[in-house]
Prior knowledge:
With 305 residues, the protein is an all-alpha fold. The protein has helices spanning 2-10, 16-25, 33-41, 49-56, 61-67, 70-74, 77-96, 103-121, 152-158, 166-191, 196-205, 221-233, 245-262, 264-269, 271-290.
Amino acid sequence: MWHLLEPLHALLYYSPEAFGEAAALGYDTTERWPAYFAWRAAPLGAAGPDRVAAAFHSFSPAMVARYVPAAWETAEPAEVLAGRLRAVDRTYRALLGDLVDRPEFAGAAALARRAADAAVASSGPVTSGLVRADVAVAPGSGSVSPGSVGRPLAAANAGLPWPEAPHLVLWQAATILREHRGDGHVAALVAASLDPVEALVSFAAVGAAPEPVFAGRGWSPAEWTAARERLGARGLVDPEGAATEAGRALRAEVERRTDELAAAPWAALGPDDTARLADLLGGPWLAAIGSGLLPSENTLGIGKV
């Protein structure tokens, strides 16, 4: 389900329509990062760089500090949130055409919303056996449900009002679900004693993506090398930087725990409705993957099955 939903969320960071909306808000669009940090962090409110770096986890704090809090000096979070819905609306209509107005799209949106609601209403706290993260709540959203404890980005997005249009509902549900999974992944990495740069180095070590792909997270060569040396001292990578048997086992355990922590919304939706949603997402997924907008090599494995 993650493989099906993640590309539908990630279009926000790559589509020309989204860059157009970002430019209209005043962001520099000669690179994607000013808009990326604004779009993704806006549900947290006018968060500072430390809070954003902690929630995003894999980015160098120095890189985050280049874009936050400057993002909120360009546009307030409420303006960014309105702009990102306009960006998604334009992106989906350009890519999917009249598919967004068909009953099957509304059906997919309804099922995804049920899963997203379950993600923060019925899942157990991410802290079960793990390190607790701070809880973040979107401005004006009220209290946080027990299922969102330790899931700052999921809780912040779940605290936003639901849009009315089915294609925007689908995007928001996909966003809540991917951030719910991501928050759990961060907790699993912390429990495995992998700091942000070590998480990337260990992921590259198992062949998830070539090392240059991870350069976009802002870590310097010296920081990368130091992290590799720390992992080597733990017996997790060999002198060439490839994962040892212990390193592969640790990453496998991180992924197993991530899956476990992400399972609640799909258990709540049930196998039949989950399969139905997967079927309904096939067309939009193919359009997103086939659009050429998403990078063929990335740190998340988008488009790989």
